[in-house]
């Protein structure tokens, strides 16, 4: 199996397992006390929930598969596929917690969103044909990356603190940004595996990853705990994660998409279709179905 094919297979497996994790995670986070944003006490509460422990196990497996996929393929190849975890979580949740009374029209619109998301991913890969890019990032990108994370996350937290209505959306955006940066950093860390632990732990990406990864995870729990606007929250996280990571790959890792007016137009349309499909799917998910992990 070629490396791009292995990247696609492992990325799909990652999306499936993360979807399973989301089914368990969404229900378990509703069973504990709501905490302030980024408070680690929410993890202390959740650890007493057996269902959440299952979600954590599935999440770790999904994360490991994502690391393998990023080792085989580029950010622009892997991340749009991993975004399909939304589709899997919706379909699995619909099957596991099937409830009467859901309008058929709503189900059709939800499935239409799933189809649109799939078409957007396939179209982006087929039209864009993303290159691998390089896997080494100079130390000079750390200051602007750190400043960007702090400014965006801090801004989202300020909005969340001041506006109760926008709180879930602001937390979701902060989560999506941290997840996207984490995927970018995973690509850098996996490139250092060949040099052994010494190379991994003497370079900066692993330490930034150790911060943004857990921060994104806690923000994810906070966002989905709010009890309202769960569908838009799900859409924002699912869309922001791949878009941020691909943008960072293009800006700093030399990832290139196929050029030419027609190709660029096709790539833009595919990403819009991907995002629109995610929004449509999330918006029509009944409130008791899982959100993206």
Please write out the topology.
Layout: H1 3-29, H2 41-46, H3 50-72, H4 75-82, H5 85-96, H6 104-128, H7 142-162, H8 167-190, H9 196-201, H10 205-225, H11 230-252, H12 261-283
Helix pairs in contact: 1-3, 1-4, 1-5, 3-8, 4-11, 6-12, 7-8, 8-10, 8-11, 11-12
> How large a portion of the residues is in β-strands, by DSSP E?
under 5%
* Intertermini distance: 29 Å
**Helix run count:** 12
Residue windows where pLDDT falls under 50 for at least 5 positions: 288-293
Provide the helix percentage.
over 70%
Radius of gyration: 18 Å
> Which class of secondary structure composition applies to the elements?
mainly alpha
Largest sheet: none
Average pLDDT figure: 83
Q: What is the string of SSEs from the N terminus onward?
A: HHHHHHHHHHHH
- Shape category: globular
Number of distinct beta strands: 0
Outline the structure in words:
This protein is mainly alpha-helical and 293 residues long. It is globular. The protein is built from twelve helices and no strands. The C terminus is likely disordered. Helix 1 crosses helix 5 and helix 4 runs antiparallel to helix 11. Helix content is 75%, strand content 0%.
Q: What structural keywords apply?
A:
0% strand, 293 residues, globular, 12 helices, mainly alpha, disordered C terminus
Write a brief structural summary:
This protein is mostly helical and 293 residues long.
């Amino acid at each position: 199996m070629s490396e791009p094919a292995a990247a696609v297979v492992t990325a799909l497996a990652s999306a499936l397992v993360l979807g399973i994790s989301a089914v368990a995670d969404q229900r378990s986070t509703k069973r504990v006390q709501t905490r302030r944003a980024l408070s680690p006490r929410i993890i202390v509460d959740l650890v007493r929930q057996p269902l959440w422990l299952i979600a954590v196990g599935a999440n770790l497996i999904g994360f490991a598969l994502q690391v393998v996929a990023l080792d085989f393929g580029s950010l622009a190849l892997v991340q749009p596929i991993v975004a399909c975890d939304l589709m899997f979580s919706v379909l699995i949740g619909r099957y596991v917690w099937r409830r009467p009374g859901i309008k058929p029209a709503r189900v059709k619109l939800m499935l239409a969103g799933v189809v649109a998301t799939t078409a957007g991913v396939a179209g982006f890969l087929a039209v864009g044909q993303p290159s691998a890019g390089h896997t080494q990032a100079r130390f000079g990108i750390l200051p602007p990356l750190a400043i960007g994370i702090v400014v965006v996350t801090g801004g989202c937290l300020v909005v969340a603190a001041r506006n109760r209505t926008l709180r879930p959306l602001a937390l979701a955006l902060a989560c999506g940004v941290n997840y996207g940066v984490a995927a970018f950093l995973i690509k850098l860390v996996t490139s250092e595996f060949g040099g052994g632990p010494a190379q991994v732990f003497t370079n900066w990406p692993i330490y930034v990853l150790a911060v943004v990864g857990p921060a994104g995870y806690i923000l994810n729990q906070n966002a989905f705990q709010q009890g309202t606007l769960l569908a838009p929250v799900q859409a924002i996280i699912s869309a922001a994660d791949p878009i941020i990571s691909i943008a960072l790959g293009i800006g700093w890792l030399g990832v290139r998409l196929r050029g030419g007016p027609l190709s660029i137009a096709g790539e833009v349309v595919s990403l819009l279709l991907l995002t629109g499909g995610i929004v449509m799917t999330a918006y029509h998910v009944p409130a008791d179905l899982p959100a993206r992990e």
